[in-house]
Write a structure and sequence with these properties.
It is built from no helices and 28 strands. With 366 residues, it is mostly beta strands. It has a four-stranded antiparallel sheet with strand order 1-2-3-4, with no helix packed on it. It starts with a strand and ends with a strand.
Length: 366
């Protein structure tokens, strides 16, 4: 039985959510790509449909939306190239897979990230080993015009300190993209670095440090970027102390606060996800390190402070991982969790916009 390893969510132009997943392949780098979609906005979902195995297998899906509303999917293929495919019309069918090739690099790449520039052009970024041993760099490429072809690969270099983990990519209020990367240091400390576009859709700054969270111990989660209702970016990580730490821009498009802890529960957190409520309040979800209960807390008002942690309990039979969220057309949040014991997913939905959560249900693996 295959097991779902990574998922991504995005909204079609008509508001129907689309879910993309990759499965494992014990004999290779990555498995098959699958997708499912809502049959109507806010509605029920189709079953799984195969997108195939680009490059002999795939991992780390990312989904973005073109300026004309067509969704585009990118993955790291089993041949270590980045592959992509796109809807041939908004809310419609899909092209075949096309390869971006490898950056000027060797060795495996971790998860990629995809975001939209202020003029609608998509941009993809991925970390990769280069041909000088263990040294790594972030590589990126972008659409040369909205809804159009793509540039070649270009290197953004690496932050000081060497190897770094998964990336986060978000957009400032003025449209400038911001890239976040953890970098490892001797003794297990892990500093967070970022760089940003100097102008919307333009060139990039150098790397700048955001410091260490939770005493500098090794992080246990992928960094997550979200945008407040007033446009300020907010960054969330799980540190080695098992707590969620965050820092936020002091004003839109501006500098950052110091790190602040949102605390932990019952042995510490492992994975986190963030969604935006219909009224603009951010809502944070975290799974425990033992994979049992699901916890959440939310902003008490847009751009404001946070509620205490609330326990949603053992929502699934077995363990849960990797909360991933998106907004329905009516503003209700939709939450998907990986369920390793079944190999599938578990889904929860808000009962109404800005409201509580309904009992969920499981999705079998493809």
């Amino acid at each position: 039985m295959s097991e779902i390893r990574e998922i991504a969510l995005a909204a079609n132009q008509d508001g129907r959510l689309e879910l993309v997943a990759t499965t494992d392949d014990p004999a290779g780098f990555g498995g098959e790509v699958w997708h499912a979609w809502q049959t109507a906005p806010n509605g029920t979902w189709t079953g799984w449909h195969s997108f195939g195995r680009p490059g002999g297998g795939a991992a780390g899906p990312a989904v973005g939306r073109n300026a004309d509303g067509r969704l585009e999917v990118a993955v790291v293929g089993g041949d270590q190239a980045v592959w992509h495919r796109w809807q041939t019309a908004p809310n419609n069918g899909w092209s075949e897979w096309h390869s971006f090739g490898q950056p000027d690099a060797q060795g495996p790449m971790s998860l990629l990230v995809l975001a939209q520039n202020t003029d609608g052009r998509l941009e993809v970024a991925v970390p990769a080993n280069n041909d000088v041993g263990d040294q790594r760099a972030v590589w990126h490429r972008w659409q040369t015009a909205p809804n159009n072809g793509w540039s070649g690969w270009h290197s953004l270099g690496e932050p000081p300190g060497g190897f770094f983990g998964p990336l986060a990519l978000g957009a400032n209020a003025d449209g400038r993209l911001e890239l976040v990367a953890p970098a490892a240091f001797a003794g297990g400390d892990q500093e967070i670095w970022h760089r940003w576009q100097s102008t919307p859709g333009g060139g990039w700054s150098g790397w700048s440090s955001l410091g260490t969270a939770g005493g500098g111990e090794l992080l246990t989660s992928v960094p997550v970027l979200a945008r407040n209702a007033d446009g300020r970016l907010e960054l969330f990580v799980v540190a080695g102390d098992g707590a969620v730490w965050h820092r936020w821009q002091s004003a839109p498009n501006n500098g950052w606060s110091p790190w602040s802890s949102l605390g932990s529960q019952a042995g510490g957190f492992a994975d986190l996800g963030v969604g935006t409520n219909a009224d603009g309040r951010l809502e944070l979800f975290a799974t425990l390190q033992n994979g049992t209960d699901l916890w959440h807390r939310w902003q008490t008002a847009p751009n404001n402070g946070w509620s205490p942690w609330a326990n949603l309990g053992s929502v699934a039979t077995g363990t849960i991982q990797g909360p991933t969220l998106a907004s329905n057309a009516d503003g209700r949040l939709e939450l998907f969790l990986r369920a390793p014991d079944t190999g599938g997913l578990y889904q929860l939905s808000q009962s109404a916009p800005n409201d509580g959560w309904t009992p969920g249900h499981g999705w079998p693996p493809p």
